[in-house]
Amino acid sequence: MNAGMIIGTVRIVPPPDRRADVLEILRSVQGPVKVQPGCVACDIYDEQGSEPAIVFFERWDSDAALDAHLRSETYRRVLAAIELSGGRPDIRFEHVSDRAGMELIERSRNPGGTAVSA
After folding, report:
1. Residues 64-77, buried b or exposed e (16+ Cβ, 10 A)?
2. Does residue 85 lie within any of the structural domains?
3. Spatial contact of 33 and 39, defined as CB atoms under 8 Å apart
4. pTM of the full structure
């Protein structure tokens, strides 16, 4: 089944002494992932706060592209970063079947169809 877009997120909370290692691994795979067929985006977020986490975010245009990525040597390096997590990582793959943009905001803010003032 191809739902249109697949969003993958891996949230890792590494111990402080492994944080730089996790970031180094994920940054080393970011470029190679971005050029894989079917990759729409690949980003890394460095969360701050009481439980600082590193989030590896990917968007794929098909299940087949994601499957090929998950079987790749490049993803083996992502798994190595996951193994450095201080606890159980949060890994999710979400299938998006519908998207909306500004039109959704306008429709929600103006259900009657009259002009919206700023």
Report:
1. ebbeebeeeebbeb
2. yes
3. yes
4. 0.82
Looking at the domain assignment, is residue 52 inside a domain?
A: yes
Q: What is the CATH number of the domain that holds 51?
A: 3.30.70.100
Mean pLDDT computed over 4-23: 94
> How many domains are there within the chain?
1
Both tokens assigned to 36: 């894989």
- Domain assignment present for residue 117? The answer is no
> What is the extent of the structural domain holding 85?
5-98
Q: How far apart are CA 15 and CA 27, in angstroms?
A: 18
18-32, 71-85, 104-118: range with lowest mean pLDDT? 104-118
For residue 113, being part of any structural domain is answered with no
> How many CA atoms within 13 Å lie on the side-chain side of 75?
14
Identity (one letter) of the amino acid at 48?
Answer: Q
Is residue 107 predicted with pLDDT exceeding 60? yes
**pLDDT 10s digits, 49-83:** 888 899 999 999 999 999 999 999 999 999 999 99
Contact 40, 59 (CB under 8 A): yes
